Amino acid sequence: MPMRRRVLAAGLAGVFGAALSGRTAEAATPPVRLDQLNLVNLSHVNDPATTNVFPGDPAFELETIATIPDDGYYLQFVREGEHTGTHWGAPGHFNTGEPLADEMDPADLFRPAVKIDVRAKAAHDPDYAVTIDDLKAWERRYGRIPDESVVVLWTGWDAKWGTPAFPNTDANGVLHQPGFSIPAVKWLIDTGRLGRRGGTGTDTFSPDVGTDETYTVSKLVYRRHRISLEILANLKELPTTGAWVLAGGPINRRGAGSTATIFGVLPPGVTAG
Questions:
Q1: How high is the mean pLDDT in each 10-residue block of the chain (273 residues)?
Q2: Strand, coil or helix: what is 79?
Q3: CATH code at position 116
Q4: Whole domain around residue 245: which residue ranges?
Q5: Residue 76 belongs to a domain
Q6: How many CB atoms lie within 10 A of CB 149?
Q7: CA-to-CA distance for 174 and 249, rounded, in angstroms?
Q8: C-alpha span between 10 and 224 (Å, rounded)
Q9: 88 and 262 in contact (C-beta within 8 Å)?
Q10: Rounded to an integer, what distance in angstroms lies between the CA atom of residue 16 and that of residue 122?
Q11: How far apart are CA 217 and CA 206, in angstroms?
Q12: H or E stretch covering 70
């Protein structure tokens, strides 16, 4: 079995065993049938008519280049940036010398996930930056964030997709979207919660607050083998805790990440929402 498949198989075994038992992947766990897993789609449909493109990124185009009546098959030509629509980003997207898409392992893209609901605060303040106190309050209610997790912010921006309210730019072209504060991300990193191969997730363009054009949060997250899942959809279906996330998509040579179909993977006993 090729090394990459062995890594993924080992990761799957540890994932489902730990999810069922609450113990570490090294502990003995009962087998899990794969047909007992539930999947939820966390990706928007890639459609030029509804896709909000990050300012400065190339336009997204779909062109029909073959039809069944004329050619015997149907085919579209796709032109877009690697981070158009729902996508995942590789560490090298922001940090020189860090791994790019073709240097990541399958297990880097299959991680435990927690969801932090900040919709109320984001509705009140579109520039809201999640704090360490927010994270600690979440843990008091739901337990410690597992090490090497993807910490997903549910800001409510997924409901704005395809409208001008999603980028929420002002008269000067500045984005106004919620995200993580710099101290909060440093705390997640320093305490091991993001670890070597965890990351962040969000239903906005970026884990950074939209007004921060230094991308400081992204530069911190995108190190080692950590990833960022961005422009997530349907977050109401992702459980607050107990699920995993799986990021797919083409692996481009020296890619900064990939437009992706991202799934929430729910083990038996873990319910959506």
A1: 41 47 48 84 95 94 96 95 94 92 94 97 97 97 96 97 96 95 97 95 97 94 95 97 94 92 91 78
A2: strand
A3: 3.50.30.50
A4: 34-45+83-266
A5: no
A6: 25
A7: 30
A8: 21
A9: yes
A10: 33
A11: 9
A12: helix 68-71
